[in-house]
Amino acid sequence: YLYNSLLIAMGQEYECYQELLIIIEEETNILKKCVLSDILNCNTKKEMVLLSLNMASDTRINAINKIAAHLHLDKSVSMSQIIASAQNQFRQNLMDYQEKFADLIKQINKVNENNKHLITFSLSHVNNTISYINSLTSSHLNYSPSGQIKAGNLQGRLISQAG
User: Fold this and answer.
1) Tens digit of pLDDT per residue, the chain (163 long)?
2) Owning domain of residue 73
3) Domain count, the chain
4) Cα dist. 97→24, 49, 101, 125, 135 in Å?
5) For residue 20, with 0-12 CB atoms within 10 Å meaning exposed, 13-18 middle and 19 or more buried, which class applies?
């Protein structure tokens, strides 16, 4: 019974992680489109899945604690200890979940890292554009009070190419 509860909890948690991966993969396309309403909607979906994931994780932890108490193990028991104490059928199922979780979390981390780079690149591009526009609209940087181009700032590509 105790191991069944743990397997059910792990199944629910795994489904939440799968759903999170799908949403994060969708987020990549949404970030590329850069539509604010889509980004906000994606964030809402992600928050809902993370809440479900948190509840599933709590259920799994409770099941582990019950098994640990039943086996007279410390509450800070590791999954490896739980697996080692399980009977053959449950041991194999738990090991399968352990492997599936590792793979799924690796995928989530990879997609998250790609999304992070996409956001960082986009933000950097926007900041560079803003800086460039500010430099173009700031009269004191490029022009003397008489309106002529200052001689000290002739290193730009356009000025060099134009003569």
Assistant:
1) 789 999 999 999 999 999 999 999 999 999 888 888 999 999 999 999 999 999 999 999 999 999 999 989 888 899 999 999 998 889 999 999 999 999 999 999 999 999 999 999 988 988 888 888 887 776 555 556 666 666 655 555 555 554 4
2) 2-162
3) 1
4) 21, 19, 6, 42, 56
5) buried
